[in-house]
Amino acid sequence: MTSSSVASPNFGDLALLPAVLSAVETLGYQTPSPIQMETIPALLEGRDMLGQAQTGTGKTAAFALPLLSRLELTRREPQVLVMAPTRELAQQVAVSFSRYGQNLQGLEVATLCGGQEYREQLGALRRGAQVVVGTPGRIIDHLDRGSLKLDGLSALVLDEADEMLRMGFIDDVKRVVADTPKEAQRVFFSATLPAEIERIVNRYLVDPVKVSIESRTTTGENIEQRLVRVDGGAKLEALSRILEVEPVDGAIVFVRTRAACTTLTEQLSARGLNVASLSGDLDQSLRERTIQRLKRGKVDVLIATDVAARGLDVPRITHVFNYDLPQDSEAYTHRIGRTGRAGRTGTSITFVGFREGRKVGWIEQATGQKMSEMAVPDESAIRAHRDEAFHQKVIAALTAGAEEQQALVERLIGEGYDPVELACAFARLARADEAPIGRLQAPRKERAPRDAKPGRGPRDRVPSEGMTRYRVAVGHKDGVKPGQLVGALANEGGIEGARIGRIDIRNAFSVVELPSSLPSSILAKMARARVAGRPLEISEDRGTSERAPRRRNDDGQAPIRRQSRA
Ligand code: ADP
Ligand code: MG
């Protein structure tokens, strides 16, 4: 079994390569996190591993530090291959490897992500990258082209394995695992352990060390989870008020759709907040710039959808808002894990509509934690908060001195005005730009609850608003699942999974709704994606005579509405 040198909380005791240890010190990590304590010794021994711990617990370093310590830097071929479910995560992992390996002479890290130029990727591989990080589709692509060779591989890592399976990458994963040399170390990391992971672990890992860190002692404890009962129309005002009175440094506000993302961003910026949105709409460089602006404090509030914010690691996030309820408890855990990073504390505030109480019960059951109820600050609370803030400003101004105003004030007093009345007049002038406090009650109940499909049922052959129907060349006969299509299209096209609409899997092909606004360059990228071993060959669905538009599905099956989380 694993060596048990896990007692002392010190990186120095972990037998890491000195050059790796010094990087950890440079980065200011004081003590290894629980998952790092448990996994690093076994990974240094070359053992297979299944590691489970909640997001934000330092899983990247848990595998990167020992694997970097074992590299043979002069052997210029892929030795470590890491697969991550999304571009963003793959890039984060690649950056982490570079950081942790900053003192390793000759280390080259290649990032192989969908939707990006091949040139740079091929260059890094040709230069002899020892560490390769990527998304499944592109990794397989390079395997097929022969530009990525796994003969010299000593370790394969599956990061965020649960997310990977949820996005439908199971076949890709199996394929890569099968292509990995027998003697290579196989390492799976995951925030949760669905049964499917256990199955592939049993099948492909040899005598693995299994490490599981109880979630309740990690993420949960440093995040204060609250809920606010507020319905549709009142949510915007509730959010503004809470943002005003809470000690927020940075905040992420989760909404369900891309459209909600845009609307809320506009609404909050109209109220004078430094706000930006993070959705699959943005191309990669713009996304990265948005995240940089958040990190640097140029933006304080980020409005995001689940997919866009997955894995986001910004330490100054003090608050996560679930403006729209998450789909399930796992999504909830991922969301609130964006705060309380790296040992800090954080607050999550979940908006719960009057008919959504049951869902909260499920989330609480799954996380094993209760959310405490808070009220939306009322007008007097907001006033009190503003008075307090102004009070502090005045005192700061007093200590800073304001002699240049003295002549004016003396003149006014000389004219016979009462100093208290004068001060009140000044205060009113100084506070003239304070925003009026909005009304909290919802406007008249609007129809169309959030989950309602606009107007038509899923069987309708008419595409949803703003969407175009496309055919892809895989179907039931290829054993394709909706999640696989979403994963492949989203990664290869660099768009958010949530932007992909209904998916209708037929026998020989499938019909997918994509935003009509997608540029043809993205479609071309998507067309090259492979699912179940076949290129997608996207083409617009014109409903040919053979497959005339009908109310019923061709092969008698109800079209599958995309389930973003199975
Ligand atoms: P996970 O993959 O479990 O979600 P990450 O690997 O992304 O977590 O790490 C979360 C954050 O914690 C990152 O900002 C990382 O730099 C930081 N971190 C990791 N290990 C440590 C440590 N031992 N001490 C302090 N910070 C750490
Ligand atoms: Mg991670």
Give a concise summary.
With 566 residues, this protein is of the alpha/beta class. Strand 18 and strand 19 form a beta hairpin.
* Structural class estimated from helices and strands: alpha/beta
Major sheet strand order: 3-4-2-5-6-1-7
How many individual helices?
A: 21
How would a crystallographer describe the biggest sheet?
Answer: 7 strands, parallel
Furnish the topology, listing elements before pairings.
Elements: H1 18-26, H2 34-44, E1 49-52, H3 59-69, E2 80-83, H4 87-100, E3 109-112, H5 118-126, E4 131-134, H6 136-145, E5 155-158, H7 161-166, H8 170-179, E6 185-190, H9 195-204, E7 209-212, H10 219-222, E8 223-229, H11 235-245, E9 250-254, H12 258-270, E10 275-278, H13 284-296, E11 301-304, H14 306-309, E12 317-322, H15 329-336, E13 346-352, H16 357-367, E14 372-373, H17 379-400, H18 406-414, H19 419-430, E15 467-472, H20 482-493, E16 503-505, E17 510-515, H21 520-527, E18 530-531, E19 534-535, E20 539-540
Parallel strand pairs: 1-6, 1-7, 2-4, 2-5, 3-4, 5-6, 8-13, 8-14, 9-11, 9-12, 10-11, 12-13
Antiparallel strand pairs: 15-17, 15-20, 16-17, 18-19
Helix pairs in contact: 2-3, 3-4, 6-8, 15-16, 20-21
Bound molecules: adenosine-5'-diphosphate (ADP) and magnesium ion.
